[in-house]
Write a structure and sequence with these properties.
514 residues; alpha+beta; four-stranded antiparallel β-sheet; 12 helices; 26 strands; 29% strand
Length: 514
């Protein structure tokens, strides 16, 4: 049998080995792919019965094919996906079992602590204010800064706080690569005085506290000028502890589910849905901005949700029959069960709502954020994480309440994505994003940055290629989710659940005709 996998416009990625005379092959050859949570990575597997040594696939019998995404495989329980093989009408072609595992290279981090002794005195009125700067060496012999310690004031014998750094950042995973450490005396005006330097390597540091890890700090200029110069002090490694960093995929493999909720802005500022100028206009030939944003983000997140049932909410509309204003209504009309079947179900419920509700106002975010927060607050054990997508056209009306809701939600297993559609100014959304200044409410700051905002207009492709532009949108809004997810798990000390045991094919398999 032969196998090939194609990515994006059917690029031939590779082939397995051929296994002779079996209907239940267990292929050995592995394929290494780059994985990105925020990208939809489409895969196709074609199966062939090999009849000769010809490399030309048309010379062999086609047995069927399987389509999936890389996200589907890693998002399945134990990163093991079983799918029926299709492609030959009217014929059962068997099943394929796909497994994925994350490569462990460079997932280690190191916790190190240093002290120094008898450093040179650099300050006229006091002692020195020393700090260390660490550099990793590059292939071309240059150095890249990778860590700075804090400054310890007014001492020639400082003890710096322990710090954690990834092995990748420290030496790019090369244990023998040179690590250069420079020692400086801090000055308020930024013109820090150079005390001296030394070099080491990960392998040397990994010996831990010993006579091998006491380093002479040398100032080359002083050494060149003074014959009696020996050093400018010493730096000693006090401790060295290796920790293996857990990754986003460790949690997914252990069964953590990503729950996706959608909230759509039904305020009157969107314009009458019957008019082509409306942001909610239902063009029979093309998705509107709301539909595109929903589909772009939803199609990626759905791979990590096993039941594919998504709550879909609306806000800012008058509801039938009595015209009451709601900022948290179910798009499917069922407040007890707002779940829709897959992204297609969300789209259908959205279109149905447009025909039944009256667009009104104001633009309040807090109710839908609190809605998801209620669910998130009930499962804080790491088994579930919640992502809320808000698609809105406008200027927010309940800023103070929304900030309060975000500050409270930052303690919970949830993230918020806001996509702004239309021509409005989105200054308030940028403030909620919290990249520059963490969101605060009544003197309390958000525990984590959990909001990502993008304006939809930045992703409109002038050439009309909506597939590419929506892939870019999804990439930008979802790129921060794995780190936000990990920041919650780390802060709560939640470890990934053990993954189920790897699949081993049964020894006695009933032969089935393919």
């Amino acid at each position: 049998m032969n196998w090939k996998e194609n990515k994006r416009r059917s690029r031939n990625f590779g082939r397995t080995e051929v296994i002779d005379n079996t209907l239940n092959p267990d292929f050995v050859r592995k394929f290494i792919l780059d994985y990105f949570f925020e990208e939809r990575e489409n895969l196709r597997f074609d199966l062939y019965d090999v009849d000769s040594k010809s490399p030309n696939l048309s010379k062999h019998d086609f047995l069927g094919q399987v389509f999936c995404t890389l996200g589907e495989i890693v998002g399945s329980q134990g990163s093991r996906l079983e799918k029926p093989i299709v492609g030959i009408p009217g014929k059962k072609c068997g099943t394929i079992i796909l497994t994925a595992e994350e490569l462990n290279c460079c997932r280690d981090a190191v916790l190190m602590q240093f002290c120094a002794n008898k450093l040179d005195k650099k300050d006229f009125f006091g002692k020195s204010d020393p700090f260390l700067v660490f550099y990793r060496s590059n292939e071309d012999g240059s150095f890249t800064i990778c860590h700075k310690t804090e400054v310890v004031k007014n001492t020639l014998n400082p003890v710096w706080q322990a710090f954690k750094i990834s092995v990748r950042a420290l030496c790019n995973g090369d244990y023998d690569r040179t690590i250069k450490v420079e020692v400086y005396d801090w000055d308020r005006d930024g013109s820090h005085d150079f005390i001296g330097e030394f070099t080491t390597s990960y392998r040397e540091l990994s010996r831990g506290q010993s006579q091998f890890n006491v380093y002479e700090v040398v100032n080359p200029k002083k050494k060149g000028k003074k014959k009696k110069y020996s050093n400018s002090g010493t730096v000693t490694l006090l401790s060295f502890l290796v920790e293996t960093e857990v990754s986003f995929l460790d949690y997914i493999k252990g069964g953590t589910q990503i729950n996706f909720t959608v909230a759509i802005d039904f305020t009157a500022s969107n314009g009458n849905p019957a008019q082509p100028t409306s942001l909610h206009y239902m063009n029979p030939y093309q998705l509107n901005a709301y539909g595109m944003a929903l589909k772009a983000v939803g199609e990626i997140v759905q791979d990590y949700d096993s039941d594919k049932m998504f709550p879909a909410l609306g806000f800012g509309a008058k509801l039938p029959p009595d015209g009451r204003i709601s900022h948290e209504f179910a798009l499917n009309g069922n407040p007890q069960n707002p779940y829709c079947d897959g992204i297609e179900g969300v789209m259908e419920a959205y279109y149905r709502s447009l025909k039944s509700v009256q667009l009104y106002g104001p633009t309040n975010f807090a109710p839908v954020i609190n809605h998801v927060a209620r669910y998130a607050s009930s499962v804080k054990d790491g088994s579930q994480y919640f992502v809320l997508l808000i698609v809105t056209d406008g200027v927010i009306s309940d800023m103070a309440q929304t900030k309060e809701s975000i500050v409270n939600a930052s303690k919970l297993p949830m993230s918020i994505i806001i996509v702004g559609v239309g021509p409005a100014e989105f200054d308030a959304m940028v403030e909620l994003d919290g990249d520059d200044v963490r969101v605060s409410s009544r003197g309390k700051y958000a525990e984590r940055d959990i909001v990502q905002f993008v304006p939809f207009r930045d992703y409109i492709d002038r050439s009309g290629n909506h597939v590419l532009s929506m892939a870019r949108l999804a990439k930008d809004v979802l790129a921060e989710i794995p780190e936000q997810f990990l920041s919650y798990m780390r802060a709560r000390g939640i470890k990934p659940s053990p993954a189920p045991p790897p699949y081993t094919p049964p020894t006695h398999v009933l032969q089935t005709q393919i």
